[in-house]
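Re: the request from the purification team.
They wanted to know what the chain is likely to look like in 3D before they choose a buffer screen. I agreed to run a prediction and write the result into the notebook, where they can find it.
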Amino acid sequence: MNPTWDETIARGLADMLEQTPSDPPPIAAFDWDETCIRGDISESWLTFLDEADPGRLAAYEAGCATDRRAAYEQLAIDLVRGRDEIEVRRAVDDTFRRAVREGRIAPRPPIRELMAAMVGRGWDVWVVTASPTPVVQTLAADYGVAPDHVLGMTSPRGENGRYLPSLTAPVTYREGKLAALLEKTRRPPTFAAGDSEGDLWLLEAARYALVIDRGPRSDPELIRKATAAGWWVQRGWG
């Protein structure tokens, strides 16, 4: 069954689109994993890589338990290192198709439709993600988001076009998400959507904020903050 908006949120979003001035263009910032899609494209790719190279997933999970930021950064590096852009995009396409078949990932049509409605009304729509930039660029195109409007973990490329084992600043994790957006737009978002504590800086900077409640997998502190702040909390999407 496709997810649908809570009726109160649907009305609120419609009012927001109707009332927000278009000059200057309002900015919308969407997290990707677990917000625009159900599931995580980077973690799904890692899971499939682990089948051929066991131990990678366990090492990542151990790293998250010790230092989540360092683990995210290392994952972003390791997924693309040594590959060129075409190889990354092919691998992501294969990963996405398999993950959808296996139920690890599912698109969120209401988010895609919201993005399209925003673009139709002159909004400047961005995706800001802790996944590698080229990984999410591959998928965000289906949501109508141009590659230059995807801000993620970015590795430099060598002369041969292959990604190097490092990251360029700003690193799009926690406060780095807002920093990356401000570097590009010079203005805070009018609207932000996310699902985790890592999106808090974007959500707090926005006039309108939407949190995807993932049920038992959600951060209860984020849900508490969202409820106290009067943000939209979309429940029931898993």
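For the purification team: DSSP finds ten helices and eight strands in the chain.
Please add any questions underneath this entry.
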